[in-house]
Specification:
Blueprint lengths: L10 H7 L10 H10 L1 E5 L4 E3 L8 E6 L2 E5 L7 E6 L4 E2 L1 H6 L5 E5 L3 E6 L1 H9 L4 H23 L4 H12 L16 E2 L3 H8 L3 H13 L3 E4 L2 E4 L9
Antiparallel strand pairs: 1-8, 2-7, 3-6, 3-8, 4-5, 4-7, 9-11, 10-11
Helix pairs in contact: 5-6, 6-8, 7-8
GO molecular function: DNA binding
Keywords: DNA-binding, Transcription, Transcription regulation
GO biological process, one term: regulation of DNA-templated transcription
């Protein structure tokens, strides 16, 4: 875990974290209270913001950078299921239930993260803010994200599955995931990593991505996928 500096977020940090994702959709009183209570955490590439099974408390919101989201149900090896960027919040389930963490979040790039300590959330509740209901909406968004990923992985056609997976990675149609000017045009993932997330073989994923590139929807670079035509992918 990166070191919490116990300092307030900068004005730019605040604009970014409330400009996309869960906080963007919350009432002004909740937004203000959360931003006032958050402290900054900085991670270097490869550092973990959250460990599987960890019990450290609080809520985390990604201000800047990219995080690998990994899960390990039961005895399974950790699997990459998402690559998250600005506006992605996590730690909600453990905070709400006081149970061990269900996922790991590892910095793919240097990251700035807003940390809302558990005691700060409890204080907001005592002061009459409906903070627990607001935080529960993060969990709802994660469930919707998981259902969308399961539905995409059931698609038997690699090209359509690749298209759906790109849309999910960019947050299309998912609560608190997208819909603001900060939506990213470039995903910093390799074709092999995309194949893992889409549950496709590397050959099938590569063929599908090249097909989408030939259609002018995306550009394939070194360990990155750039979206060129959002509408053709079904994005707003």
């Amino acid at each position: 875990m990166g070191i919490s500096k116990n300092i307030d977020l900068t004005a730019q940090d605040r604009r970014r974290i409330e400009g996309r994702g869960w906080l963007y959709r919350q009432p002004e009183a909740i937004r203000t209270a959360v931003l006032e209570a958050c402290v900054l955490i900085e991670l270097g590439s490869g550092e973990s913001a959250m460990h599987l099974g960890g019990e450290d408390g609080g809520l985390y919101g990604l201000i800047e950078g990219w995080l690998d989201v990994l899960i390990s149900p039961g005895a399974m090896e950790p699997a990459l299921v998402h690559v998250a960027t600005t506006g992605w919040w996590f730690g909600d389930s453990a905070l709400l239930t006081r149970s061990p963490k269900r996922g790991a979040h590892v910095a793919r790039t240097p990251c700035r993260i807003a940390h809302l300590p558990a005691e700060a959330a409890e204080r907001m509740a005592r002061e009459g803010l409906d903070i627990w209901r607001s935080i529960a909406f993060i969990s709802v968004g994660v469930i919707d994200h998981a259902f969308a990923a399961v539905a995409a992985n059931r698609c038997p056609h690699p090209l359509e599955r690749a298209r759906l997976t790109l849309r999910i990675l960019l947050g299309a149609g998912l609560p608190f995931a997208a819909g603001a000017p900060l939506d990213p045009p470039v995903l910093p993932i390799s074709q092999a990593e995309f194949a893992e997330i889409a549950n496709l073989s590397r050959n099938a994923a590569g063929d599908a991505l090249r097909d989408l590139a030939q259609q002018g929807m995306i550009r394939l670079g070194y360990r990155e996928i750039e979206v060129l035509d959002r509408r053709a992918l079904g994005l707003a």
